[in-house]
Amino acid sequence: MNSTILQMQDIAKTFPGVKALQDVNLSVERGEIHAICGENGAGKSTLMKVLSGVYPHGSYEGRILFEGEEMKFSSIKDSERQGIVIIHQELALVPYLSIAENLFLGNERQAAGFIEWNRTNQDAAGLLKRVGLDENPVEPVGSLGVGKQQLVEIAKALSKDVRLLILDEPTAALNDADSEHLLNLLRELRKEGMTCIIISHKLGEIEDIADRTTIIRDGQTVETIDMSEPGSTQDRIIRGMVGRDLSHRYPERTPEIGDVVFEIRDWTVHHPTQAGRVVVDHADLDVRAGEIVGIAGLMGAGRTELAMSVFGHSYGRGITGEVRMDGKAVDTSTVDKAIKAGIAYVSEDRKHYGLNLIEDIRVNTSAAGLDKISRGGFVNGNEEIRIAEDYRRSMNIKAPTVMSVTGNLSGGNQQKVVLGKWLHTAPELLILDEPTRGIDVGAKYEIYTIINRLAEAGKAVLVISSELPELLGICDRIYTLAYGRLTGQLPRAEANQERLMELMTIEKEAVR
Amino acid sequence: MSAVAAPHQIAGVGRWSPDRRYLPVIGTFIVFALMVTIGGLRYENFLSPAVMSNLFINNAHLIVLAVGMTFVILTGGIDLSVGAVLALSSVITATLLQAGWSLALVVPVAVLAGSAIGYGMGVMIQYFDIQPFVATLAGMFLARGLCFLFAPESVPIRDESFIALAGWGVNLGRWRVTAAVLIALLAVAAAWWVLHRTRFGRTVYAVGGGEQSATLMGLRVARTKVLVYVISGTCAGLAGLLFAMFSRSGYALTGVAMELDAIAAVVIGGTLLTGGTGFVLGSVIGVMVLGLIQTIITFEGTLSSWWTKIVIGALLLIFVVLQRILTLRRT
Question: Is residue B214 part of a domain?
């Protein structure tokens, strides 16, 4: 038998207007743990969706060879039949059903159409033992912690006679002990001959466990590193992940930086549902007038959570710490109060959090600052149209009229509407969360120009972005965030992608 | 900013193609116009002012119910209690008037009883996170039960001032506008004003368009979600009063399933059940469509009145499918 279990050859996948994958080649040996690394949006998840049949055969180019045979999956069911099982970052368990029921969901132990409960629970107990859980299989899944749920997912995969197990960010939501337990289990399974693909941002983990690592950058495979070779360190992976030219262009700006406008001190946020899990940990941060400050961090580092918790406690519970505007402590416990304190937050998900897509530009522009154009609860319609029209012009929003429905606009123009909405509230601090996500290059430049204009007008700007070149291109200073802790800050002159990536991937223990 | 700024010309307004948001309402209006035309061609006297006036007079209470329901559905909610609240309000009106209370006191008590039930349900929905369907179902049973507590039998109203009010009306040519119709139309105008001219109205639409985005825009989502049920309850209370004027009595079993008529009218009027789009004028046309079906079947003479329900069912299906197609195109 061939020792190569999986080969993906020249995979290319195009979404309307975007090449997500191109010339991707991946070869996985039998019985190895193969890591896949890449920045957010590099194409790791897309590749795994191609492999598992989420994107069916015919919707991508290239060939998939599994056990030497060409595979043409049309659905996840197809790939699972061949023994390829993917465990997603968001767990796919039904909380109210028991562990045993979840394990055999869609694959029930039955005879003559009736479920055999004894066999179900016995088999379940056996599977749980294999993954090192001693829970009773009749317990509901919802009563387990995330770490144990992750193990149940793996047990579920094992029940399907898995030959290739794919784990997407398996430890992102786990604490250290649970992570270690999971990694040990993977080592055990490897001993039994299981093949694993693991996607992870935690480079320390990869260094620990992976036999080989394939790096993906901008939808292309860069290289595959044999981790047993000397010099295959985290630095080596980082270089592969970021080693690209600054192909985007950024407008010029000469910063004129004033006094500190916005500070947070000792800011701590807990997870809204998982008690005791700290999402933002004692963060201290400040932004000066006319300054553009960046926050860099990998997915799950707590960037958005930090921003949203400041903005009206929109995320998390058990929030402690202090927000200061112009040196004075302010109350930002509701969105209303945060806006009054002079804070505006442009969400990373403008479709769900930023816009009312079924309404027009006029209504969206005025929504956050309605009090400015209304008296005694009544909205001044003419004033509203005038203001929306002003922003439509000054922001160059490409729409025939302010009566155009925002759902029909392009991403870049939608983002301009969101910016217009917040500028109308006349904020002192603007938090921009992934301001150019899903926006084409030309519109990006326009957004950068608007951001620069704000800074020139003396506003404080805080930018969160997954794209390091973007942060390096527009920010005066960049904070790095890892596992909810601010791990460092670099002025523009001293920052480069390698240094940022190092700070962003500092392991938990080292942060303290 | 210059005080003499010229009014802004909005480019593109007045182009022929209508805004897609108006399409469902336009569709409803076309159906309405078609039915009027067909009726007019088929039956003599169908288009007479008396028949058309009666369309409003017979449905004044339903118009008011539909107005309140529009607020709720615009936020993505539902209110199943309005039929029972209407009955409660009519029973309260009749019982208190028979007990000798003055009309000036009875009217606010009957209407505010509806507001109070609406408030209770709104609080349940917003602060205890109970689905609107369940909370208003409970409200429906509560209100219907209370009706029987007040009066298990039909209570006739003999109060003179009330009868005078119920019988009051003006003749515009051969059209007749009664007090009930006038009140209903005022409610429509007020609702239109509130929905399109106030911050509260904006928030109603924003909540329906996306509760999370509305929250992050700093809009008062919680208050708004409670208030729409208060409005719906108040409207149901008012509708109960109008129904009492119409029937000159209060009876615990009136308005059974009337909440479904109100929902049907709102949906036929082009308001999406998922919230966010719709117009109160659409709901009024929706009520008129329901009324026309009834009228046509009466004029036909040979059909049993149950055909009304069949036609309403068919129309409802058509409109829901139409809306679905429109939303699919939108995304």
Answer: yes
Residue pair A152/A144 in contact by the 8 Å Cβ criterion: yes
In the beta sheet, which residues pair with residue A167? A87, A198
Interatomic CA distance for residues A48 and A64, integer angstroms:
12
Q: Nearest-CA neighbor of A239 among A23, A41, A25, A39? A: A39
User: Which of A230-239, A294-303, B231-240, B318-327 is predicted most confidently?
Assistant: B231-240
What is the ipTM for the molecules in this complex? 0.74
Whether residue B10 and residue A389 make contact (CB cut-off 8 A), yes or no, is yes
Whether B217 and A345 lie within 8 Å, measured CB to CB: no
Sheet holding A33-37, edge to edge: A84-87, A164-168, A195-199, A33-37, A212-217, A220-226
B276: in domain: yes
Burial class (CB in 10 A: 0-12, 13-18, 19+), A230: exposed
**pLDDT single digits (tens) B5-33:** 333 434 444 344 556 677 788 888 888 99
CB contact under 8 A, B206 and A314: no
Report the alpha-carbon distance of residue A200 to residue A299 in Å, rounded.
10
How long is chain B? 331
Residue B230 has pLDDT above 50, yes or no: yes
Number of cross-chain residue pairs from A and B with Cβ atoms under 8 Å apart: 99
Token pair of B166 as six digits: 């119920």
Amino acid (1-letter code) at residue A231: G
Residue B219: pLDDT over 80: yes
Which residues of chain B lie closer than 8 angstroms to A378, CB-CB?
A: 197-199
Beta bridge pairs of residue B85: none
CB count in 10 Å sphere of residue B195 = 21
Range of the domain at B206: 20-38+45-330
What pairs with residue A374 in β-bridges?
A379
* pLDDT lower than 50: segments of chain A: 1, 245-247, 511-512
A359 to B205: CB separation less than 8 angstroms, yes or no: yes
Residue B6, pLDDT score: 38
Nearest to B214 by CA among B201, B227, B230: B201
Query: For the domain that residue B94 is a member of, what is the CATH number?
Result: 1.10.3470
Predicted structure pTM score:
0.76
Alpha-carbon distance of B117 to B112, in angstroms, equals: 9
Taking alpha carbons only, the member of A330, A353, A348 closest to residue A340 is A330
| Total Cβ atoms within 10 A of residue A247 | 8
Per residue, what are the HEC states of A107-176? CCCEECCEECHHHHHHHHHHHHHHCCCCCCCCCEHHHCCHHHHHHHHHHHHHHCCCCEEEEECCCCCCCH
CA B176 to centroid of chain Cα atoms:
21
Domain count, chain B: 1
Which chain A residues are Cβ-neighbours of B217 within 8 angstroms?
Answer: 335, 367-368, 421
Is B12 a domain residue? Answer: no
What domains are there in chain A, each with its CATH number?
4-242 (3.40.50.300), 260-342+428-511 (3.40.50.300), 356-426 (no CATH)
Contact residues on chain B for A371, CB-CB shorter than 8 A: 199
In-domain check, residue B181: yes
